[in-house]
Design a protein that fits this description.
By secondary structure, this protein is of the alpha/beta class. It is built from 14 helices and 18 strands. The longest helix is centred in the first third of the chain and has 20 residues. The model has no long low-confidence stretch (mean pLDDT 96).
Length: 443
């Protein structure tokens, strides 16, 4: 199941619509604060807690959370950065019957609830506030963030000032882009989504476990999906991609190569012909290990088959418009993305969507915060994947996986999202000593 992702403005609209239907701001705040308290209690137990409350509604959530934690028997204290500045926050402060400590004199606690600033933050914390904030979170054993760690810009994932590392982030209604965009994603810890009764509809989502096509008891190798890969100068890369395609469930994997490639399983067929318009091909794969042989890419673009373009194919492409009508999935990392599309404005999410619009292709914008963008505006943001994926050949493995799922009949966007999710989970199983060959084995 996927979790929706919305911008700060969309969240405000969703809240306004809920209020128009009869839900009060105070009710939404009560639900959010209660959810924050429950998540923190389940995460840490009855640990002495200091709740840091800002002047806005994020601070209001904190006062509600403090009240609910106290009811659960948790020793809890509140420190206020400033007096509440909204009606709802003043209501929440009035419901808290415990003391409120001065910001400058608050004593540290084993757990801190960061309820200073939420999705509306547009500038960094003031120097004195930041220094005290980092002091209190630095002295804690656990930090739980309300909606977002303070200092994070919700839509871009930018860190507007230094951000303390949260162990748990509890957000409401929907994830925000910053939960799954770097650099902010690295500071979130575990991200929990609480339902507070706000209806959310959006074309953006967190990529979740895919629904893979079932195997047909009456099927055969071609109906299960034929991946045809085009080799180039570096055989190791296409070998990784081909093996990954086979392990990701393609019924038949074939590689066009002018010379035998060592290390390929016997089940992967090597051929010295490039029959790229074979109607049985479910997906064509080009780019891994291609090198500076533009004829290989030119040949691939004459095929009617769906295709995955990776690595050197992207460098040789030249203009994104060449992908129009190609039923293509492209998999650029940041350097390849800029070379192909130039420096596009906006956040990484906005850049990926614009690239998909310009090219007509599904764009897998790789990195520690991998995104999958479709020309129709759909966007999938990957959950965190292990840092040890950043090693040679793992991108070739991903390209082969995408080609396999596409050949098996999954639509392009769903195939790309499914492969990205499986890629991260396979890396978790492979472990930190992993190389790309191990990643294939973990599939």
């Amino acid at each position: 199941m996927t979790r929706p992702i919305i911008t700060a403005a969309q969240m405000r609209t969703a809240e306004e619509q809920a209020i128009a239907r009869g839900t009060t701001v105070e009710t939404l705040m009560e639900r959010a604060g209660a959810s924050l308290a429950e998540a923190a209690f389940r995460f840490a137990g009855p640990v002495e807690t200091l709740v840091l409350c800002g002047p806005g509604n994020n601070g209001g959530d904190g006062y509600v959370a403090a009240r609910h934690l106290a009811r659960l028997g948790v020793p809890v204290r509140v420190a206020a950065l400033a007096e509440p500045a909204t009606d709802a926050a003043r209501w929440a402060r009035g419901q808290w019957d415990g003391p409120v400590e001065e910001w400058s004199h608050a004593k540290p606690a084993p757990m801190v609830l960061d309820c200073l600033f939420g999705t509306g933050l547009k500038r960094g914390l003031e120097e004195a506030v930041l220094a005290r904030f980092l002091e209190l979170t630095g002295a804690a054993e656990l930090t739980v963030a309300c909606d977002l760690p303070s200092g994070v810009e919700a839509d871009s994932g930018a860190c507007l000032s230094p951000v303390p590392q949260a162990d748990l982030t509890v957000t409401f209604g929907a994830l925000k882009p910053a939960h799954r965009l770097m650099p902010a994603m690295a500071y979130m810890g575990r991200v929990v989504l609480a339902d507070i009764g706000v209806g959310v509809v959006n074309a953006w989502h967190e990529i979740g476990e895919p629904e893979l096509p079932p195997l047909d008891p009456a099927g055969h190798k071609y109906s299960r999906g034929l991946v045809h890969a085009l080799a180039g100068k570096m055989p190791g890369a296409i070998a990784l991609a081909a093996k990954a395609a086979a392990r990701a469930g393609a019924g038949y994997v074939r590689v066009s190569t002018s010379r035998a490639i060592d290390g390929l399983p016997a089940a992967v067929v090597q051929t010295d012909t490039a029959v790229i318009n074979d109607p049985r091909i479910g997906c064509l794969l080009v780019g891994p290990g291609m090198g500076d042989i533009p004829q290989v890419l030119t040949l691939a673009l004459t095929s009617y088959a769906p295709k995955v373009l990776d690595a050197d194919a992207l460098g040789q492409l030249g203009e994104p418009e060449r992908l129009k009508g190609q039923d293509a999935i492209i998999t650029p990392h940041a350097g390849e993305f800029v070379k192909l599309f130039g420096t596009l404005p906006g956040s990484k999410a906005e850049q990926a969507l614009e690239a998909a619009r310009q090219s007509g292709a599904v764009v897998v914008y790789k990195g520690p915060d991998t995104l999958v963008a479709a020309p129709d505006g759909r966007l999938g943001l990957a959950p965190p994947a292990p840092a040890w994926l950043a090693s040679a050949g793992t991108g070739d493995v991903l390209a082969g996986m995408i080609a396999a799922l596409r050949a098996r009949g999954m639509p392009a966007f769903e195939a790309a999202c499914g492969a990205v999710w499986l890629h991260g989970r396979a890396a978790e199983r492979a472990g930190p000593g992993m190389i790309a060959d191990d990643l294939v084995d973990a599939l």
